[in-house]
Amino acid sequence: MTGMDGEPSTATTVPGAPGSTARGVAGTAPDTGDRAAVWHPLRNRVAVVTGAGHAAGRGYAVALAAAGARVVVADSVGDAAERTVELIESAGGTAVSAMLDVTDEDSARATVALALHRFGRLDVLVNNPNRYRDTRYTPLADMTIEHWDRTMAVMVRGTFLMCKVAAPALARSPHPAIVNHTSAAAYGVRNWLDYGTARAAVIGMTKSLAKELAPQSIRVNALCVGSMAVEAIELGVLEREDQMTSTPEFARQLIPRVATAADVAGPIVFLAGEASGYMTGQTISFDGGKYFLG
After folding, report:
1. Quick one: DSSP state of residue 228?
2. Lowest model confidence (mean pLDDT) among 52-56, 152-156, 214-218, 256-260
3. What is the SS3 assignment for 287?
4. Which residue in 24, 131, 158, 270 could disulfide with 102, CB within 3.0 to 4.6 Å?
C-alpha cells in the first residue's frame, strides 16, 4: 500500500480505530490473532503536540504517531514527555521530546526549530496547553489576579505563541493544519471562571486564525472535549471520577460515561489530515452529547 504522499507505508494500528483491539494509549491489548485495522493517513507528516505528557495531549500524540506522523512531544514536564515518547516508540512510531514553556516565545521557537531540525518539516500543530497542574475550582470571590493571569498566560497566550511561531513553517507544508484543544467548559462552568473563559477564548482565536491563515492554506479547527476525568485526576483537579460524574451537568450528558484518551484518536487524526481538508474555522464538540451547538 502507499501513503498519502505516494510512499510505501507500514501497517499501523490506531487506538480507537475501527477493527483495533486497543483499549487505551497506555496499554497493549492481548494478541487475539485478528487482523488489526490498517490506518496511516498521516504517513511522513510531522506534528508538534503541546501538553503531550498527560491524558488528552498524550492521546493526541500517540494517535498521530499511530497514523504515521513523526511527533514532537512537547511538555513543561520532561519526564512526562519522555513517557509519551516511550509509548510511541514501543508501538513502532517515531517521536522526540521537547521541554516547552508555552508562555515563553523563545521556548516556543525552539520547539518548532527542533521539529524542523529533526524531521525537516512541520505539517500539523496541536495546541493543548494546560493549566491543570496548579489550578483548582475557585469561586469568583476567591480568585486572585495572579491565578487569573497565569491561566490566561498558559492557555490563551500559549496557544497564540505556538500558532505565531509555527505558521511560517506550516505555510511551507502541502497539508498544513492547526488543531486547538478546547473544552466544554467554554460554554459555562461553575467555580472555574478562569478555565472556562480561557477555553472560550481559544474557540474565538480558532475562528480568527482560520480567516487570517487561509491565504497560506493553513486550516485551523478546534476540538472541544468534555468530561475527561482521567486528565483532571492525573493532574490534581479531582481526586475521584465520581466528583465529575455526580454533577448535574454530567447527568444531562447523552452518552453516560467519561471520555478516555483512546476516544480522542479518531477526532484528532481526522482534523489533522486530509479527511477534513474542506473544513476550517470549526469547533467539533466531542463531549458525549453534553452540549448542542447551533
Report:
1. -
2. 256-260
3. coil
4. 158
C-alpha cell recorded at residue 24:
487505551
Q: Give the chain's length.
A: 294
261 and 227 Cβ atoms separated by less than 8 Å? no
Three-state DSSP string of 182-203 = EEHHHHCCCCEHHHHHHHHHHH
* pLDDT above 90: residue 118: yes
Does residue 48 have a pLDDT over 60? yes
Distance CA 239, CA 73 (A): 26
- pLDDT band at 39; cut points 50, 70, 90: low
> Whole-angstrom Cα distance, residue 203 to residue 195?
13
The pLDDT-based confidence of 74 (bands split at 50, 70, 90) is very high
The DSSP code sequence of 113-126 is: HHHHHHHS---EEE
CB atoms within 10 A of CB 133: 15
| CA–CA dist 246, 43 (Å, integer) | 42
CA pair distance 138, 147, nearest whole angstrom = 10
Cell numbers at 231, concatenated: 486528565
With H, G, I as helix, E, B as strand and everything else as coil, classify residue 97.
Answer: strand
Catalytic residues: 195
Higher pLDDT: 26 or 119? It is: 119
Q: Which residues are CB-contacts of 95 (< 8 A; sequence separation ≥ 6)?
A: 61, 65, 70, 71, 72, 73, 84, 85, 88, 89
Residue ranges with strand state E in 121-162: 124-127
Question: What are the backbone angles phi and psi of residue 277, rounded to the nearest 5°?
Answer: -65, -15
What does the pLDDT read at residue 19? Answer: 35
Secondary structure class of 281 (helix, strand, coil): coil
Q: What angle do CA 294, 214, 52 make, to 5 degrees?
A: 75
Predicted local confidence at residue 262, as pLDDT: 79
Per-chain mean pLDDT for the chain: 82
215's CB contacts (< 8 A; 6+ apart) are: none
